[in-house]
Amino acid sequence: FAADTSHASHVAIGWGDKGFYLATPTWADLQPHTAAKAFFVPSSACLHVMMTRASSLGESAHAVCITHEQYRHLVRYIEASFALGADGEKQWIKGAGYGGYDAFFEAVGSYHGLNTCNAWAGRGMQRAGVRTPWLSLLPQTPHMYLPRPPSVDHTD
116 with 90: CB under 8 angstroms? Predict the structure, then answer.
């Protein structure tokens, strides 16, 4: 990574439509034709790897406790998602990224409306033995069966 990532406590990894990821660093950058193409036209995928802190993950992030064996299954699933070059190495997408704390890599698979980033995350959780819906196409569905985090009382 170009920046000092020693502050990071977590690695966030996402899989998705390469064109969408590279053209949409923020939701403000979203163009309707980019979203439509990603959903309706099967296209190449990439992995977004970001060094971060738990406090930066946002309210939609959920924690789940898994065993060492479940963790190994999850890591194998993620590793298998990286496309490898002729040299057997992960294929870094040079010059792509939103800042010095992240990087993009070529990925295995084709992105489309029935094979979304959420479906990828759900399959990874299933491989790790975490209960998820059979098909997790939409946001929130991969963690639908996870215990709800305790609500915080903001009245005081």
Answer: no
Of residues 68, 52, 48, 66, the one with CA closest to residue 8: 52
> Counting beta carbons within 10 angstroms of the beta carbon of residue 134, is it exposed (0 to 12), middle (13 to 18) or buried (19 or more)?
exposed
Helix (H/G/I), strand (E/B), else coil: 71: helix
Average pLDDT over residues 42-67: 85
Give the span between the Cα atoms of 139 and 27, in whole angstroms: 15
What is the reported pLDDT for 156?
A: 40
Contact 132, 125 (CB under 8 A): yes
> Tens digit of pLDDT for each residue in 88-143?
999 999 989 888 899 999 999 999 988 998 899 999 999 999 888 877 766 676 76
Q: Which residues contact 153 (CB under 8 A, 6 or more apart)?
A: none
